[in-house]
Amino acid sequence: MRIVLRRPDFRLLFAALLASMAAESILLLALAVWAKDVTGSDGMAGATIFAIIAPMTLAPLVGWVVDRYRRRPFFVVANLGTAVLLGPLFAVHDRADVWIIYAVAACYGLSYIALSAALSGLIRQLVPSELLADANGVLQTVRQGLRLVGPLAGAGLYAAVGGWLLVTLAMTGFLTAAAVVGLLRVSESGPPDAVLRWPAELGAGLRHLAGEPALRRALLGYGLGSLVMGFTESLIFAYVDLGLHRDAAFVGVLVTVQGVGGLVGGLVSARVVRRAGELGALAAGITFFGPAALALAYPRLWLGVVALLLAGVSLPLTMVGLNTLVQRRTPPKLLGRVAAASEALVSGPQAVSIGTGALLVGVFDYRLLFALVGMVTTAAGAYLWQHRSLTPPSSAGPRVPIPAPRRPPEAAVDHEVVGTTRRARGR
């Protein structure tokens, strides 16, 4: 990771993403808390999450739009637009205004898809192929770290001061990201001619995912695991209540433990990709979730801590493996559509899984459901591990640029040529 952070262009992008991810982390939970505060309804609070996820159905269209523009200017404009769309939240005062929260949440869901797709292409342009896993690992490490403090900080700020400060901070984060990325100097070729052939252009990303063997198996395996992994969002409350006999607030402690595991997973993810390949890293991440879920079927606090650490390690491994695979196996002209489609194909089953888990936990014993999650995710990980040869590892690691030898004084006349050669090697 230190190698990729030595690159000035990536450090600039990293600073921008740090600002936008911080804004995102304080915003998500706070929107649900805000809806709960003005309506008094748990169901209406939970509907904000649905409003954010629902635009995933438009992922092919959003990905096509992303592919029509250069990545850097699109990323700048999308961050500016995200800051602007948060503005109506200043008008939320009582129950009659809750529709504004839902509208902003839905627009933010669209923005999230667009920003993720554009970011995938921007990283691909800035970072050499051998450093893609390191770049994705750095960003996942930061994202996991922000998950430890961001949502609680956002909810705390809302409770202490109100929504206006929260909105101001979030807008500042996105505006900062736009300003910093605007300083990047990226050599980008123009997008292809804007010819829309329905539905061929919109479905190009899905066709690529289905036609590329490694990507197809990655999404099949991850999709299978996602169908049950979301159960744990509801099961963890039953585990704390019925298993550990503690208050629901103790879930926050376990989420913190999971966040620590996420930091560890982010730090080691690039190394795992180099040693096991992208599919191997994805398989390891999903497989880690299996024993974690099985351990939670046996309610003991020390075992729960170990299980949540494993579950935390799982997420960044899966995301770094999948994102790196998409970036390496997709032509640049399709990357926006493929990234958006893969995000939708992963988030869709997860959303269904969260809703299904909320229903099942009221009917079946939570321990039985945890055992089911453990068996299914272990099977999904085994399926991916069997096909890891499709993405062979690169155990040699990223190449470190070697400085060119010093030229003797008499070669000074060729200094301009030598400088050009050195810059070419640096790429």
TrEMBL record:
InterPro entries: MFS (IPR011701), MFS_dom (IPR020846), MFS_trans_sf (IPR036259). The keyword Cell membrane applies. GO terms for molecular function: transmembrane transporter activity. It comes from the Bacteria. Residues 407-417 have a biased composition (Basic and acidic residues). GO terms for cellular component: plasma membrane. Residues 392-427 are annotated as: Disordered. This is Major Facilitator Superfamily protein.
